[in-house]
Amino acid sequence: MSGPDIFEQLLTWSLYLLGGFAWNITISLVAVAIGTVAGYMLARGRATKHMLSQRMAILATALMRNVPTFVFQFYLIFMLPDTVTMPLGLGAVPFPSWLKASLALALAVAGFVSDNLVPVLSLDGTERRHATMRFALHWGNYLVIIVMASSTASVIGVSELVSRCNTVINASGTTDMMLWVYLYAMTFFFTFCFVSTGLIRVVSRHIGRRDVPDASGA
Amino acid sequence: MSIDSAKRNQLGRIATNLNRMGLTVLWMVCLALFSPVHAADRLDTIRAHGVLIVGVKTDYPPFGMLTTNAEHQGLEHDLAVDLAQRLGVQLRTVGVNTTNRLQVLDDGRVDVTIATLGDTAERRQVATLIEPDYYSSGVSLMTRPDSPVQRWSDLRGQTVCATQGSYFNRTIVQRDLLKLQLYANGRDAKLAVRDRRCVGWLFDNTAIAGDLLTSEWHGYRIALPPELVAPWAIAVARGESSATLARFIGDTVAQWHRDGTLLALEKKWGLPPSSFLLQMHALWSAKDPDGQYRCRRLADDQWPVACRNQIFVTSTNLTGLRRWGLWLNEKTGINLTYLYDDYERTIFLHGIALTLALTSSCLGGSLATALVLVWLTQRGPHLIAVMVRGYASLARMTPPLLQIYLLFFGVGSVASAHWGIRFNAFWIVVSVLSLYTGAGLMNVLDHAADEARTVDACYVVNVHALARLLAESSTVVSASLVNVAKATMMASAVAVPELLSVSTYIVAEHGNVGTMMNTLMVFFVFLIFCVLSLLQWAQRRGAHVRT
């Protein structure tokens, strides 16, 4: 296939691939939302004086730290049912694959949040505010990592970007397109990552400038 | 009183007669109930009449179909001809279909059925199915000539056309995680494949093979090895009267496998060569050191366990590890095939070894890459430093799975098409993951080195300084290395037979989802725990060195 042909093909499929990337973002946002809440609760559990809750929280965090997300995705997709019957007679609700992928990623997020929030919770006042800011920056970077990790959802059949690349290749019927479609998908991820990390760096420098008077004064 | 005595005599005679009748009836009833019902032996009847009646299909090319003169022909018809020859009788064939092929045996209308009958436990309740099985079929995919699909795992998340009511639709969706587009009949499904509305048509591989022989679907392919393979058996009526016939036919089928009759017929009717027939030919031709066939009848007229259809072997037939494994499965439903089945135990252990090799290579590779890259950016000429930093940021900011696909499938297909070079999947995965993690680590160490330079202007990155940098950033380094250890399982996406791939294969073969997934989780949690402990030990050693 010639250059202009390939370019034309990529252009026609761009909207479809962009839709796939939107699914990556969705999966990541849901995963981070669930994981942050769970991680916060675990961090609180680790900070309490109550021995039993503390031990359970530590154990849960250790488990979440040790489970590889890729394998856990397979575990969830095979072990969880396809539909869930809601109580109170609300009927059967479908349990889609992308939600299972989100749950697998949420585990990693919860482990991360639990680990990084514990030192923050042990501080008070302005120190806690600074620590929370720093945590927020780490959290932002982690969100970017999760978006990249969401590409692995393609192996369990979720219709996100990498999966859609494979559909495009199957539909075009030739193997010539493979190289170019994958490169095209890489630019999506690279642009997103580059822009996000750049933004986070700008924000962190801004916060750092505001921090300096306090740090030298205190 | 003469009347009384006459009456008494009459009564007496009637009573005697009734007695006799009663006894006769009783005797006849006894005879009917307790004397052995001697039905005629089927084989003897066939030989006596000089005719063998066989039921064959008429709508399943090329196994059973009609000629232009409405006569029966096909692979199974040829088998019937051979069977009649061996019996030394004439052959008469009767057309049967899926609904009545076993019923006609009960009626006595046919002696033998050779009609693409899948060997299952339910059917063994209804008729006598003869071992060894003579053919097998499974589920496969019919695709367009240009389709790149090569493995079942390529279909995950893809849309596949299927015929409504096929028994395998649900199982395949669950095992291979694909989506179905259901059509009322096969013809509509095949047209959808032609119009590119789905990747392929999911159906029985022998039916697809039959279609591919027609001009309409010429050039299309059977893209995948068959799944859910069920062997086919010849059937005779249930009961003692068919026992000798069943034995004769069993010996005949064994002979067919041994002398290659079935292989030759498969070729004659244009079917693609099946691994089932090749395996059976090897199995039934194998001889013991003393010159006897390994698969010969035992004292109780059964075939040895190794020669039987494994689905019907129960724990009572076996000894040793296999017996324990099957017993456990029968009692609790936990199927530990990776322990008691020799083949699966081998690939399972091989999978573990590969996973360990992958993990250690990625850990070592990431560390080595990080050190090399830091050296280049800090000690090399400015141009090199800029290029390395740029390349590293590219490697860091794209998902490693996509990089693996790009290298293995994208560049790999170009390389194999133009230069005949095939990439090794294992080393592609290790290189990509090492570069991805190494680039991230290089970034951290680079910044640390630059900060050290602001304090001491003559800061030079040598071996000693590198060791110090590593020790100081040890938490971040550990975190990245644990992450890469967790990510090595993505090798299963490019068919490296590591543990995840092997486990999903075993699930597809046996359906024991719960057992395999739980085993997998336990193993991987344990592995990551070991890696973490190793890194924490290294961190403590590093702290010692620092102080």
Structural account:
The complex is a heterodimer of chains A (218) and B (547). Chain A has 218 residues and is mainly alpha-helical. Chain A is built from seven helices and two strands. Chain A has a single domain (3-82, 94-211), classed as MetI-like fold (Orthogonal Bundle), CATH 1.10.3720. In chain A, helix 1 runs antiparallel to helix 2 (51-66). The model of chain A is unreliable at 211-218 (pLDDT under 50). Helix content of chain B is 58%, strand content 11%. Chain B has helices at residues 2-34, 42-49, 75-87, 103-107, 121-126, 169-176, 186-194, 205-212, 243-258, 261-268, 275-285, 320-332, 337-340, 342-379, 382-396, 400-418, 425-455, 463-472, 474-487, 499-510, 513-546, and strands at residues 51-57, 59-60, 64-66, 72-73, 90-96, 112-113, 128-129, 135-143, 159-163, 179-183, 201-204, 221-222, 227-232, 235-236. In chain B, the strands form three sheets. In chain B, strands 8, 9, 10, 11, 12 and 13 form a six-stranded mixed β-sheet that branches. A five-stranded mixed β-sheet of chain B has the order 5-1-6-14-7. In chain B, strand 3 (64-66) and strand 4 (72-73) form a beta hairpin. In chain B, helix 15 crosses helix 17.
